[in-house]
Design a protein that fits this description.
With about 130 residues, this protein is an alpha+beta fold. It has 2 domains: about 40 residues, no CATH class; about 70 residues, no CATH class. The chain contains 5 helices and 4 strands; from the N terminus they run ββββααααα. About 10% of the residues have low confidence.
Length: about 130
């Protein structure tokens, strides 16, 4: 029997993954009803979806953070054009981390620093409603 599907519209500026289905920003998709955010909120009774993520042990968290930093450093090995192409999909935290890593590198690229800070500024203005 096929799973029960419900339409989910992503009103956010970031893509979301709902039950294994990528829902682009400001777009909608049919998703498995058991993973629909409204269904999850109803299941807890408090308006917040249940968190099934296990807590990490300190060593596991350190290893995870080291792996994330290694991935970002690997990304920064690319040319500016390829890095800039990935920036719109990056979270605010990732942008901040990329900016810091590029700033402390042996040869920081001014054009990349400018692209990251410009995107951060655009996002900040969008959040506050400030004119560009």
């Amino acid at each position: 029997m096929p799973p029960n599907k419900r339409y989910f519209h992503n009103d956010s500026d970031q893509p979301r993954i709902i039950g294994g289905v990528l829902v682009p920003a400001h777009d909608g998709r049919e998703v498995d009803a058991q993973f629909h955010p409204d269904q999850e909120a109803e299941s807890t009774g408090d308006g917040w979806p249940e968190q099934d993520l296990p807590l990490l042990e300190p060593d596991e968290e350190s290893a995870l953070l080291a792996a994330i930093e290694a991935n970002l450093l690997d990304l920064l090995k690319g040319n500016v054009k390829s890095i800039v192409a990935t920036l719109p999909e990056s979270s605010d935290e990732t942008l901040a981390h990329l900016l810091r890593l590029e700033q402390i590198s042996d040869t920081p690229r001014k054009s990349l620093l400018a692209e990251i800070t410009e995107l951060q500024l655009q996002r900040a203005q969008a959040k506050t409603g400030a004119p560009e």
